Amino acid sequence: MTSIFSYIFQLVVVSLALGGKASAAPVLAFGDLRGHMEPCGCDPRTDVGGLKRISASLIRYRSEHPNLIVVHSGNLFPKVIKDKTEADGISRSLERLSPDASLINEIEWGLLSSGEKLPNVKWVLSNISDNAKVGDLSQLIRLNGVEIFGYLGRVDKNLRQFDTDLLKKWKAQSKITNIESRVLIFSGSGAELEKIVKSKFFGVIISSNPTKLGIEMGDQEQRDEESLTRRFKNRFLAWSVPYGGGGFLRQGGLELTAPPKTLASSLAATGENKSAAKASITALTSIQPLHWLKLGEENGAPEGVTKIFDDVREANRRKFRLLAEQRVRDLPMSGFIGAEACANCHASSYDSWKKSKHSSAMASLLKRERHEDSGCVECHVVGFTAKGGYVNEQKSPNFSNVQCENCHGPRREHASNPSVSPKVDARASCAECHTPPHSPGFEMKSYWKMIEHK
Question: Binning pLDDT at 50, 70 and 90, where does residue 382 land?
Fold first, then answer.
């Protein structure tokens, strides 16, 4: 008897959290851009998402589903906003996308608390304290027969933690009786999420990406979709949106195919009844909530969003050119000499370098017209963050591409006097550019063999 009840409870949880019963309107979610206006593009495995692809795909989804509800999980900006030009572009793009509801997440809550202005979209937060003074926020959004709530689990005097009193408040606010028509955008701990799931108040739960703020991710989400499942004590609770705006989470009837087999198996394993376990797997095999946005899906992006991207690119180019005018003054005193000067004494090492991808690193930026974008250039040239290093393709072509001095440091003095050879940790320089978003799966031992020389 216990195993049957366990199975029934699990199946109910799965049905609710994954939208097993179609809600009054299909739900499409994205978010947690965390400053990623567009993917880096350095590696195909992480070249997913971006606001241009989101906007183009949204047009298609909205044309196919007139009653579609689009929700945004918040965390629009990085933990520390360094580039205000790009942050403004992200804000303007989100306003163009016009999601039906956006969660006030960690980043937005911090901006509100410091008096910053948020993009002009429909923000929702349903666990805000009655006496909180943080601007005009919706506690509940109603659209197409659906009610959308938002929850931010954070210890703050202006926020309420989920408990029976908060649930009573939500029930009093709700005007509908079928839970399939209630949607929650959630950000918080697994324990909080479990309590909310157990309340059986929501038919669709959209979780914000649980990755801690400030942490970058590589291709692990693309390789392992189970990383996008929220669970507590091995119980599946809900799906979370892809990190960095990498794709959509589809719920309430938009799901198409199967979730990870490991997820279905782990759910089935919680029951002792074999037929129940088999039924659990069968019930899950018709669900595929994730739509990764890959190369080509930006085609059809609306003119307004494309114009914003063009504006940001042009602003970056202007900043780069201004910086080049300043940096060119340091070239005559440069401590760098370029790889060609190393070839005479280190012929075999030079040949090894010449055969590596490092020797043509700038080509990928030229192809994508990103050769005047400081954020990209610094990892594709010699000494861009040091005096006397790369300026641009016209003034310092000998410093283009990743070269000997990226790992071994400036070598002009060594070239004139070989006895002067400062010790530099060449391996340490690798991690500066081979970060998860740029070089997913980077592993020093295997990568080092590709460039190792004597």
Answer: very high
Tens digits of residue pLDDT in 314-359: 999 999 999 999 999 999 999 999 999 999 899 999 999 999 999 9
Cβ neighbour number for residue 275 with a 10 Å cutoff: 10
Please state whether beta strands 27-30 and 69-72 pair in parallel, antiparallel, or not at all (unpaired). parallel
Q: Which of 186, 184, 180, 174 is nearest to 203 (CA)?
A: 180
Angle between helical axes of 274-284 and 261-268 (0-180°, round to 10): 150
CB atoms within 10 A of CB 329: 11
Report the DSSP beta bridge partners of residue 124.
103, 138
Distances (CA, A) of 280 to 191, 269, 285: 23, 9, 9
User: Has residue 1 got a pLDDT over 80?
Assistant: no
Q: Can you tell me the distance from the alpha carbon of 269 to that of 445, in angstroms, rounded to the nearest whole number?
A: 38
- What's the first-to-final CA gap in the chain, in angstroms? 70
Report the length, in residues, of the chain. Answer: 454
pLDDT in tens, 220-234: 666 677 788 898 888
Give me the domains of the chain, ranges plus CATH numbers: 2-292 (3.60.21), 331-451 (1.10.1130.10)
In angstroms, the Cα distances linking 316 to 23, 77, 87, 319, 372 are 43, 18, 12, 5, 7
Question: Do the Cβ atoms of 40 and 86 come closer than 8 Å?
Answer: no
* Neighbouring C-beta atoms of residue 206, cutoff 10 Å: 32
